[in-house]
Structures
1.
Amino acid sequence: MIKVGIIGVGTVGTSVANILKDNADVISARAGRDIVVKSGVVKNLAKDRGLDITLTDNVDDILNDDEIDVVVELMGGVEEPFDVVKRALKSGKAVVTANKALLAYHRYELQEIAQDLPFEYEASVAGGIPIINALRDGLSANHIESMMGIMNGTCNYMMTKMTNEGVDYDAILKESQDLGYAEADPSFDVGGYDAAHKLLILASIAYGIDAKPEDILIEGIENVTQDDISFAKEFGYAIKLLGIAKKTGSEVELRVHACLIKKDEMIAKIDGVMNGISVVGDKVGETLYYGPGAGGDATASAVVANIIDIARSGKSTPMLGFDRPMEGDTLTLKPVEQIESKYYLRINVSDKAGVLARVTKLFEDNNISIETILQRPADNISANLLISTHVAVEKDVQKMIKDLEAQEFVHAQPVMIRIV
Ligand SMILES: NC(=O)c1ccc[n+]([C@@H]2O[C@H](COP(=O)([O-])OP(=O)(O)OC[C@H]3O[C@@H](n4cnc5c(N)ncnc54)[C@H](OP(=O)(O)O)[C@@H]3O)[C@@H](O)[C@H]2O)c1
């Protein structure tokens, strides 16, 4: 029998306890032994959780319990769970977590501390989708050429509603908060940080790259308006918040931002709160993973799968997928300013003769070639220019945006969305 201690019996922790009980028949048959929750830790002991497990508000009750084999960390946060899981590993316990923020900052230190002890985290990326398993085991024969995905259900829900129902950003944000999809402080989701944490975890497994959130390009969906959506529709695009990893030579670019993506791409068709990730391997070609990225039961399904794996073998594949560094050139992170992409810009300008020519001259001066231009009236003194470009270099585009901001005929900060 394997005994489990759950630190954090909230949305996901409660589902883990319930699944281990409800599906005990299939779980024990698959694991080859029974798996039971011995106890759980919460902050508020007075709250009824409808569970028949022993609860405590002291993590030491689990960390010092020699009968507990697996510690499941589901409390959230970064430094407090880091301390808790380090102590669990040091006392010889296996660890399972769903905590992407913890891993975005501390995965390599945890790998070092864990050594041969199992440390599993399937639920930390895309909730119920077994993407870590796929990348670390199923695709381990491949060099990974690229990964691109919808890794935040809240943003995808908002973009889908804005596209399909013409709802404005502020209205759909409020609706998402009312439905419980977005937090009271939504900046972590809509600012792209949650997706970035997940992308960094995947990048370690795919490329062995040790990067932190501050090392990569992270932008959100806060500036997307109905003007942008109407441009996207007119030119056959959807707008999505995507996490992108792309290997070119010995460099890997990692970025999270809103994207215009052709409507017929598989990723563009993923709507609502669902997540989807496309992974291209040099031998397998493109593979696509789709499913629920959040929710108690969907997330706990991945947590319990990790516990079953630990119960089966006691030793798992290397935590971040590599048993030792690759020989030869190691991959490095591509500097943000060298990223190449097509771009879309929305520029609010004076509605006067000669302005369009001055705008296009600034594009030319910065080596940026225009593909399409639309002009839409904004109010009685200004118009929005909606411009898409051919492939350009990020640093040139950033410089041109600064140049545009300095012009008296530009009324607001230009908005830029990259095209994939
Ligand atoms: N929810 C999802 O859909 C989802 C999806 C993927 C990953 N995750 C990750 O899973 C983790 C848990 O998420 P959740 O949604 O289940 O969170 P949650 O509902 O807020 O639950 C957190 C639990 O931890 C307990 N807790 C927090 N700090 C504590 C402390 N200092 N001492 C003791 N107990 C403490 C809370 O106790 P009280 O109940 O007494 O407050 C609560 O039971 C997070 O890392 C999250 O990022 C969640």
2.
Amino acid sequence: MSEQELDESRVGFKLRDADREDGGLLAMVLDLMAAKPSVRTLKAWALDALAPAVGEAALDVGSGTGEDLAELLDRVGPSGRAVGVEPNRGLRTVARERHPSLELVDGIASALPFDGASFDVVRCERVLQHVDDAPAAAGEMARVLRPGGRICLIDTDWATAIVHPADPEVLGRMIDFFHAESANPYSGRTLRGLLADAGLTVAGETAATWIEPQSGAKQGFLSMMGKTSAAAGVITAAEAEAFHRGLEEAADRGAFHMSLTMYAVAATKSA
Ligand SMILES: C[S@@+](CC[C@H](N)C(=O)[O-])C[C@H]1O[C@@H](n2cnc3c(N)ncnc32)[C@H](O)[C@@H]1O
């Protein structure tokens, strides 16, 4: 199924009771995101910062399709341990189908089902934006980290989203609506403070900006943004049509722009 064919009204990351079919749709979205150069850049940066070694214990919080967890397992080897915490049952099923040897547990970031000081390495990517109590989640990740352990948080900050062309006032109403739907839309800017407040020492930070290709004006999230906003009553049907027409006309002459910045912060726990 292509990005264009996805029925995005069925896609969400809060579906705790998601079945295999829901998990499959979410997995398709995650696969499309994971292929974006900016996401690949931050995943590689995090792996370098975490430096998982043979025999170590690693944790991926909100492990999704399990691809990053499989990479951690590969690094720690058979003498180590790699565990994914994932509340979405459908995604756990997808991850097990893709990587049968993965250890996956049901759970949420703000109540990790592990003893303190259980892991040498903890990662958590594009999860905290969906979490109601991000400081509690950061505290939990710090708790399960061993002294001398490494942690990396990655997240988007939706205030960095730029969509052009669009009437700023109409776009503002749409953005306010989508921000209100998200638990923590400005997560990206908070990562450093979350780690510092959890008593960890920040060791490095970076950012990567996703620039959508011209084809993105007509498919994926943007192709639904106006229609979804109109259905919710935050813009009119005429405003939605003008929004989509403006994007498509701009893309036809190569003048469309959409970008979004994601942040990664690495930290250590004092030995
Ligand atoms: C955008 S996906 C990112 C998945 C994966 N980390 C990656 O980078 O591909 C967000 C993930 O967070 C999970 N999630 C949502 N709320 C969560 C929570 N409170 N605790 C842990 N994971 C959560 C979702 O089920 C989903 O797998």
